[in-house]
Design goal:
By secondary structure, this protein is mainly alpha-helical. It folds into two domains: 33 residues; 158 residues. Bound molecules: protoporphyrin IX containing FE. The site of protoporphyrin IX containing FE has 24 residues, from helix 3, helix 4, helix 6 and helix 7.
């Protein structure tokens, strides 16, 4: 067990193996050739990506940002040069993956246009999708370019660096705010919440 858990890659593979065993016992493999199962599989990929994305968004806002003032200056590079770039890698690609799997899911379910037009009965997921799309736009076109300047991956003067850090921080806060109604709308579609 230790040999598995000491490696992240082996841990993830073990998680997939456990899932395959559960699916085997439940007799799911026979139903996999259907359109319904493919849409379900896309929904699972979508939720996995969404958890990675919003998990890291909340890590930045609930843990990293409030902790920065408490960290001595000489230790701050550990966050800025090591942890933040790594977290931002998973963050931005999870955002893209969540968006692509979400749009594919709506398309496979046959209501992509109806949802994006916020037409009934797809208004709940439509609002959630628009909120999610705005958030994904913010990640790729505001947070990431400004974080690159703030973290010194792109060289700019001190004034531009401070401005970029502030804009990235405020946009990350905006996404945290939007994540609350967005997640409500995501789960409302199936469960009559809106
Ligand atoms: C970026 C834009 C996004 C799009 C286009 C999108 C699209 C969708 C669609 C089409 C569904 C299926 C709704 C249904 O028929 O029940 C859905 C469900 C869901 N989405 Fe998203 N989504 C996005 C972002 C997110 C994010 C960031 C999360 C974070 C975890 C998330 C979590 C969920 C959950 C938990 C469900 C419910 C699954 C269920 O009830 O079975 N989505 N999304």
């Amino acid at each position: 067990m230790g040999a598995i858990l000491q490696s992240l890659g082996r841990t993830v593979i073990a998680g997939v193996v456990i899932l395959l065993v559960i699916m085997g016992i439940a007799g799911t493999f026979g139903a996999m050739a259907t359109h319904g199962w493919s849409a379900f599989f896309m929904r699972w990929l979508h939720v996995l990506s969404g958890v990675m994305w919003i998990g890291l968004l909340w890590y930045f806002n609930f843990v990293q940002m409030p902790s920065m003032p408490k960290i001595p200056d000489e230790q701050k590079p550990a966050i800025g040069k090591v942890i933040a770039p790594e977290a931002l890698f998973w963050f931005r690609w999870a955002a893209l993956s969540t968006m692509v799997t979400g749009l594919l899911l709506a398309w496979m379910s046959g209501y992509l246009v109806s949802a994006l037009s916020i037409a009934r009965p797809h208004h709940a997921i439509g609002i959630g999708m628009w909120l999610g799309l705005v958030m994904a736009f913010n990640v790729w076109f505001i947070i990431w370019p400004n974080q690159k300047k703030a973290l010194g991956m792109v060289q700019v003067d001190a004034d531009a660096k401070a401005k970029a850090a502030r804009l990235a921080m405020l946009t990350s806060r905006l996404n945290t705010m939007l994540s609350i109604p967005m997640l409500y709308c995501m789960v409302a579609q199936q469960n009559g919440g809106l």
